[in-house]
Amino acid sequence: MDDRIQLALFGAVPAILVMFYFDWLDRKRPEPPWRLRFVSFAGMLSTIPVLWAELALGRVEFVTESAGAAAYHAFVVAAIPEELAKLAVIWLVVWRRPEFDERLDGIVYAAHAGLGFALVENVGYLFGAEDLEAYWSTFVARAVLAVPGHAIWAGMMGYLAARRRFDGHGPGLWGGYALAVFLHGAYDWALMLMPKVSDLAAAFLAIIPVMIIVGGFLILRRWARQALHADDHAEAWAAFLAGKG
């Protein structure tokens, strides 16, 4: 196999490692491995319609490379179709499945959908690297930020959907989608705008993606703990009622 293809396929590793993290979060009552793999594969396939949508939306031309142009490409071309693809995977593949029976499942399944998408996207970016220096800089940046980002944004969407489903509270799947689009778009907008501004402004903009990923991870981890606590309580209550019956 060509060395360039091998290096590109190595880009699948970060997404797979992050999948293990979400599996570890769900270790108390784990989901069927085959279902998780199916969701991840569906996330991988969802990159195909997204690619066509982004090519079509990207044809819009702007007079200048302004902040508005960067916002259009970040939110409309990238965030909206990509997060919609993950939402479609959640809705079509797992939403009605009996395995989706806990709040934490919303995070775990959605994160796997997002990571399946990120896996293919990462391989594509690395395949396009011009040389080894560009390859490794892209690999590290995406492994630390972009790949976890796809899991975090999808995981938030899954959690808010699960809260509405099991507790009747929160913005639900579409509210989670709106949050994911906002965070994803803001992340991409900062990165796209950085080459077009002064070095000082770029330094400030560089803080935005880091804050989105670190802050998003901390919030999602807290939501995962809350979901697990609520699921434990529901399981204990069901066992109590079964014992009385």
Structure at a glance:
The chain is mostly helical. It contains 10 helices and no strands.
In terms of topology, how is this protein built?
Elements: H1 3-9, H2 12-25, H3 33-45, H4 47-57, H5 67-94, H6 103-127, H7 132-167, H8 172-193, H9 199-205, H10 207-244
Helix pairs in contact: 1-6, 2-6, 3-5, 3-6, 4-5, 5-6, 5-7, 5-8, 6-7, 7-8, 7-10, 8-10
- Helix content range of the residues, please? over 70%
Low-confidence segments: none
Strand content: under 5%
Given helix and strand content, the structural type is mainly alpha
The largest β sheet comes out as: none
What's the mean pLDDT score? Answer: 94
Order of helices and strands: HHHHHHHHHH
Quaternary class: single chain
Rg to the nearest angstrom? 19 Å
Supply the number of helical segments.
10
- Coarse morphology: globular
* Straight-line N-to-C gap: 62 Å
The number of domains: 1
Strand tally is 0
Commentary on this structure:
By secondary structure, this protein is mainly α. Helix 3 crosses helix 6, helix 5 runs antiparallel to helix 8 and helix 8 runs antiparallel to helix 10 (207-244). The model has no long low-confidence stretch (mean pLDDT 94). The protein has helices at 3-9, 12-25, 33-45, 47-57, 67-94, 103-127, 132-167, 172-193, 199-205, 207-244. The N and C termini lie far apart (62 Å). The chain has one domain.
Task: Give a quick set of tags describing it.
single chain; 245 residues; mainly alpha; 82% helix; 0% strand
